């Protein structure tokens, strides 16, 4: 919570399999920092139990978790199911990646309601900010890390003056991301190269637009730079977040992760104990040549923008 009483939020955007879970969990080891995973899925997975995973990082069902049960009581009583269905309607209709431009235009115009005449969007944003406030009230957090990775949500939140928003844009080589998506991982099903790389391109281009709209509240960080030198990368993130703390990782990339209260996210969020952050370049030898070429072609319009070579 800032001196003005606004919850401070680090919203992570970009595409999946880019290191947001481990980065968030590392930040969550700092006193007063709470990593909540992908808050976007609180309603579908946690309340309605319709998604890929319904458990909190602490091991409890989200609705039964000591933290989330209190948050839901504060923002969704007396009928969490009804609220959840409304949130899903707005998320699907107005807060997908394709809606980033519209939400940015509203933020630039300082509109309090969306231009497309959907007051439900404003109500959904009220609910999101209410969640951040409830999390802060329950935990005393200085910073809430939300790894939802929906650019339109970050764009919409830019116009809110009741939240201190910072935006971290994580990028990973699209071929590494495609390689990771080819394998099923616990409760997350596999995804084909074409689909994953199309999503990669759309999410990162949309996130770039947010950076241009709010450069003073935005940082782009490559997964490769984070894993190569995690202390330096985390120091940059902490500077963006306005926290003076030292990075919670050794010079060798070692850290110890405790229990967290993350919603959905990479199954690695359930891993506790010692970890070591190091580069993962296995895709360079394991990704079939045809799949690598396909991912390169799809991402080629923006590949160089992030410093990635067109060759392996």
Automatic annotation (TrEMBL):
<dbReference type="GO" id="GO:0001517">
    <property type="term" value="F:N-acetylglucosamine 6-O-sulfotransferase activity"/>
</dbReference>
<protein>
    <submittedName>
        <fullName>Sulfotransferase family protein</fullName>
    </submittedName>
</protein>
<dbReference type="GO" id="GO:0006044">
    <property type="term" value="P:N-acetylglucosamine metabolic process"/>
</dbReference>
<dbReference type="Pfam" id="PF13469">
    <property type="entry name" value="Sulfotransfer_3"/>
</dbReference>
<dbReference type="InterPro" id="IPR051135">
    <property type="entry name" value="Gal/GlcNAc/GalNAc_ST"/>
</dbReference>
<dbReference type="InterPro" id="IPR027417">
    <property type="entry name" value="P-loop_NTPase"/>
</dbReference>
<dbReference type="GO" id="GO:0006790">
    <property type="term" value="P:sulfur compound metabolic process"/>
</dbReference>
């Amino acid at each position: 919570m800032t001196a003005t009483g606004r919850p401070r939020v680090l919203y992570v955007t970009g595409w999946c399999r880019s290191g947001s879970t481990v980065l968030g969990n590392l930040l969550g080891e700092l006193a007063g920092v709470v990593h909540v995973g992908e808050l976007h899925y609180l309603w579908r997975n946690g309340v309605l139990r319709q998604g890929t995973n319904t458990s909190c990082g602490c091991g409890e069902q989200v609705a039964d978790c000591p933290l989330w049960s209190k948050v839901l009581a504060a923002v969704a009583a007396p009928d969490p199911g009804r609220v959840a269905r409304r949130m899903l309607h707005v998320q699907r209709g107005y807060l997908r990646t394709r809606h980033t431009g519209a939400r940015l235009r509203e933020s630039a115009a300082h509109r309090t309601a969306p231009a497309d005449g959907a007051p439900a969007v404003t109500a959904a944003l009220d609910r999101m900010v209410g969640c951040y406030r409830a999390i802060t009230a329950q935990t005393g957090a200085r910073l809430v890390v939300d790894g939802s990775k929906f650019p339109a949500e970050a764009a919409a939140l830019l116009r809110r003056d009741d939240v201190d928003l910072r935006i971290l844009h994580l990028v990973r080589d699209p071929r590494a991301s495609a390689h990771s998506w080819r394998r099923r991982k616990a409760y997350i099903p596999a995804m084909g190269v074409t689909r994953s790389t199309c999503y990669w391109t759309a999410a990162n281009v949309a996130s770039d637009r947010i950076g241009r709209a709010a450069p003073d509240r935005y940082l782009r960080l490559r997964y490769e730079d984070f894993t190569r030198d995690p202390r330096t990368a985390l120091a940059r993130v902490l500077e963006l977040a306005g926290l003076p703390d030292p990075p919670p990782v050794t010079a060798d990339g070692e850290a110890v992760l405790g229990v967290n209260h993350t919603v959905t996210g990479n199954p690695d969020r359930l891993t506790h104990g010692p970890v070591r952050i190091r580069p993962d370049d296995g895709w360079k030898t394991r990704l079939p040549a045809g799949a690598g070429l396909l991912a390169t072609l799809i991402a080629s319009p923006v590949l160089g923008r992030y410093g990635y070579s067109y060759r392996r």
